[in-house]
Structure formats: structure tokens, C-alpha cells
Amino acid sequence: MTQSENLKLAQKGAYLSLVVYIILSISKFIVGSMYDSAAVRADSLNNMTDIVVSIAVIIGLKISIKPADKNHPYGHLKSENISALLVSFIIMFVGIQVVLESVPEIFSEKHHTPNIITIYISVFSGIIMMIVFYINQKLARRTNSSSLNSAAKDNLSDALVSIGTAIGLIFTQFGLPILDSILATVLGLLIVYTGFKIFRESIFTLSDGFNEQELEEYKNYVLEIEDVIDVQNIKGRYHGSSVFVDVTIIVASDLSLEEAHHICDKVEQHMHGKGISSVYVHPEPASIH
Questions:
Q1: Cβ(224)–Cβ(270) under 8 Å?
Q2: How confident is the model at residue 70 (pLDDT cuts 50, 70, 90)?
Q3: Distance of CA 119 to CAs 80, 102, 174, Å?
Q4: Separation of alpha carbons 219 and 214, rounded Å
Q5: Selecting from 3.30.70.1350, 2.40.50.200, 3.30.930.10, 3.40.228.10, what CATH number does the domain 212-288 have?
Q6: Rounded to 5°, angle at Cα 99 from 96 and 103
Q7: What's the pLDDT at 24?
Q8: I want to staple 5 with a disulfide (CB 3.0 to 4.6 A). Which of 1, 124, 132, 279 is the partner?
Q9: Residues spanned by CATH 1.20.1510.10 within the chain?
């Protein structure tokens, strides 16, 4: 599949997450409000931030599909990372608001035991999100989409949060209603942490940071080509879900220009086969090193 086809397929996973999050966030907010559960309301706000994330992923993927132009010779692939950065601020703001509202309730003298229906909605939500996680994880592996892979991890996190909320709500039925407010505070902190993780990853990518272990792995891929004597230098950049690699290889000094070019072609083809979107290879003769 081409990069464009992969991005279009990845959009389906983002749309799935969006629809499910809208349904679950509305359902949880109604149930949490009707049956007086701060934890379920906080979980609904958690899902609302996921709606924003899903929309950002969809917009980022749509822009990323646009071909390279005069002003964007490398294409528009970093749009995924820019949209994720903007979303991280929204998520952290929502998380802080949840914490500010929940902490005073912990120290309140009046605590209400939530209705048992709040447990059912949390368990149901956890099961649904596990199914969405499984589908998006398979799509992410198939399309090699970093943004969809992040969304799948978020799906799993939300599933575990909902199940954890259900477990906590069970204890509220046995004379510990304060746990509802404590759970809401913990969920608020988790929302803040999620936003911070997205912020950190986005800044790392947009500042052209690259994983050293991955670079070492790519270097070994290059050395798998028989006529490559050594790798003098290798650099990498993330462009959304794509990886761009620049590599300088050492080849025999007695090779003709055509032979050196042929080796570079073999390196490029080999790296493309390993999932690298763009590869620039520069040969250097061994005699001058």
C-alpha cells in the first residue's frame, strides 16, 4: 500500500474512536449527573478530551495526505504532530479543571453513595474501549501510523480507567462514598498526565528529535548490503507517521560512479522494504577515510 492509502485507512480508525467517544462521553455525563457520581462525570470529561484528540488526528491525517508543493517540498506530514501539540494544551486544561473541582469534594462533610447503575456504565465503557483498542492496534500495525498507534494506546488507557472506576465505585457501595471524589481527582490527574505526554512527544518530534536506538537499527539495516563497507553518518527525522533517513556510506574507492550509484539504489530499496518512507544515500570512497 502507498503512504496515501495507509493514511486514508488510518483515518477509519480515528473515525471509529471519535464516534465511540462521543457516545460514551454523553452517556457517562448523563449517568454521572443523574446518579451523583463525580468519578463517572470525570471519566466522561476524560472521553471528551479524547474526542478532541480524535478530531485532531483526523485533521492531521487529512492534511498529511496532501502532496508536496512549492512551499512544502517534504510534504505536509508534520501536520499530525502540530495538531497533537495544540490538543495537548486543551487536555491539560480540562484535567486541571477536574482536579480543582474534585479536591474540595474530598474534604466535604457530605458524601453521596452513587447509584449501582454508575458501575454498569463504567464496566460497559471499559469493554467497548477494549474492542476499539484491538481494532485500532491492528490498523496501526497495518498502516504504520504513529498517530493511530498513539490513539490505540489511549483507547487501552481509557478502557483500564473505566474498569478501575467501576472497581472503585463497587467499594462506594460498602460504606466508602468518599472514594467517588478521590477517583474523580485521580482521573483529573491522569488527564493532565495524558496531555503532558502528548505535549512532550510532539515537542520532541517537531524539534527533530530522533530515537537513538532506532538510528542504530537503521544503521544495521544499511550494513546488510554487501557492498557497503561502513556507515560514516546517519540521521533521521519524523514527519508524522513517516520516517526520513539521510545516510553516508563508505564504498570501495575503485568503483565507478555508476557502480556507486547502483549500491545507493540497493540501500534505498532495502530501507524502503524496512518501512522507511524517504531515504537519501550519499557514497564516500574508502581511500580518503
A1: yes
A2: confident
A3: 36, 19, 13
A4: 9
A5: 3.30.70.1350
A6: 150
A7: 93
A8: 1
A9: 3-206
**In the CATH scheme, what is the code of domain 3-206?**
1.20.1510.10
pLDDT > 70: percent of the chain = 91
> Where do we find the cell 556507486?
260
Q: How far apart are CA 43 and CA 29, in angstroms?
A: 8
The 3-state DSSP class for residue 236 equals: strand
For 113-154, the DSSP string reads PPPTHHHHHHHHHHHHHHHHHHHHHHHHHHHT-HHHHHHHHH
Query: pTM of this prediction?
Result: 0.68
pLDDT the model gives residue 84? 74
Q: Which residue has the cell 560514516?
A: 232
> Torsion angle of alpha carbons 187, 191, 196, 198, nearest 10°?
130
Domain with CATH 3.30.70.1350 in the chain: 212-288
